[in-house]
Amino acid sequence: MTNCICIAMKTNITTDQSALLSLKAHITSDPYQFLSTNWTSTAASSVCDWIGIECGLRHRRVTAVNISNMNLTGTIPPKLGNLSFLVSLDISNNYFHGNVPEELSHLHRLRFIKLKLNNFRGEVPVGIGQLSELQYLSLSNNSFQGSIPLSIFNLSKLEMLSMQGNYLEGKIPEPIQNLNKLRYINLQDNHLRGPIPLSIFNISTLETIGFSLNYLSGTLPNEICHHLPSLEGLHLSYNKVNGQIPSTISQCSKLRTLALAYNNFSGDIPKEIGQLELLEKLFVQSNNLEGAIANSSHA
Q: Can you give the residue ranges of the Disease resistance R13L4/SHOC-2-like LRR domain (predicted)?
């Protein structure tokens, strides 16, 4: 029985090693030789001691891969989806390109995915919506195309969603309200169109909403702040939002940044904005607004 356990453990860690060596083989440029001199399969080398790798104390399986900021160029192999104990994947700020393989959807323990600041393209993998433990998803500053997959809105534990600086198009899906633990959402600098889904204003955990630099339209609801007690940043500049700025914006009492510039807002600037005592940055220029902000030092 003891022999069976040993064989199973060897197979498991061998699976992890094989997945990481596959990743290494898909690296076409490693200018500082971070991986080429460290990720080796010699008998004296343990996967858990490789640079950027962490293993769990109990099972001695790979739980974290962090190869961010290494100036690496390459692609992500499907075999990376075999790291079945992986909790955190951070390959941000490199030169990875190509598509993100659907096999990453096999990593059911994943809580953190950080792929920002690379050259990934193609559509955002639908399979990401199967990662039920995911809390942090950063795909910003890549070249992702297509629409935002509806499956992402199945991620009930998601707290941070960043997809800024891509080529995403279509509407922001209405099921966004399913992300009822979301604290931060940044979809800025894409090609998103259509009205801002009203359901987002019902996510009471939100601290930052970033939708600037898109083609979003429609109006803001009068009850915009009724369910946003923690909102600190509302970024809607450079869109096509129209109508009046709701006077109830003052109910977002923790607001520090209110960015509504370069839209089609009309009517008077609500004097209630002057009641936002924590407000540090206010941008409302280049609209069709009238009046001034009373009792406020903000400009």
A: 78-187
